[in-house]
Amino acid sequence: MSKNILLVDDDALLRRSLAFRLEKAGYHASTAANAEEAIKQAGANPPDLVLLDIGLPGMDGLDAMRRFHNDIHIPVIFLTARDRELDEVLGLELGADDYVTKPFELDVLLARIKTVLRRAVSANPSATKPAPIKIGKLCIDPVAHTVTMNEQELELARLEFGLLYTLASEAGQVISVDDLLARVWGAEFVGEPQVIYVYIRLLREKLEEDPNHPRRIINVHGVGYKLVKEQFE
User: Which of 10, 24, 92, 95 qualifies as a FRET site for 62, CA 20 to 30 Å off?
Assistant: First the structure.
């Protein structure tokens, strides 16, 4: 399964280009334009590594560093164009796993990513392996990338899996369409939001007894979708 890298930077062009290059290198890349959105994404679906700019709007990268390390326990590589000496001292004291100054060569960054990921697994093999989500007869294993219901494995495509995992991670709570798009398709998604309706329908066909009258994945009109955990008992 590809490692998931969360890229946090307020430069939209850099996010798009670097996310594309990370995908070409074999990683799954998700993005956020600010620390608050990144922390929200990471809490719902923890990445294996965060590439974090220091000079962000709102909560800056140094404050976000504390949250990623103390609350979510995710390795972080700082990306910054700010004064290297000052930020390196502050960043590494806070616990950054590595530090790359813009502009950087992609090969250099990829080598640093491999090193940090390898070191994180060696230090704590379970750190980047989120536990399966079990809701009654539904079990979602993000490491094996499998879904079983009534002990029968379901075949789900990558986006179907990501959508179900996101809904299940906040079972019983409504998640807006915009939030689902950001978490599953990425913050840089520029397509039509109707894609959510298509994938919700695909999930219902595999999870509902009657997809035309859903009870397990329901729409809260004008708000979003939620997974009803009681319906999986």
Answer: 24
In this predicted structure, which of 95-109, 112-126, 128-142 has the lowest mean pLDDT?
Answer: 112-126
DSSP E strands, the chain: 4-8, 28-32, 49-53, 76-80, 98-101, 133-135, 138-141, 146-149, 152-154, 217-220, 224-227
Return all residues near 194 (Cβ < 8 A) that are at least 6 apart: none
Nearest to 65 by CA among 89, 33, 95: 95
26: its two tokens: 């074999």
Rounded Cα gap, residues 2 and 205, in angstroms: 27
Which tens digits make up the pLDDT trace of 21-65? 998 898 989 999 999 999 888 887 888 999 998 878 888 777 887
> Which residue ranges form the domains of the chain, and what is each CATH number?
4-123 (3.40.50.2300), 133-232 (1.10.10.10)
Say whether pTM exceeds 0.70.
no
SS3 170: coil
d(CA 43, CA 138): 21
Compute how many other C-beta atoms are within 10 angstroms of the C-beta atom of residue 31: 25
Eight-class DSSP state of 230: G
Extract the tokens encoding 208: 């509902």
Cα–Cα distance, 174 to 161 (Å, whole number): 18
Partners of 32 in the β-ladder:
8
* Beta carbons of 203 and 160 less than 8 angstroms apart: yes
For residues 225 and 217, is the Cβ–Cβ distance under 8 A?
yes
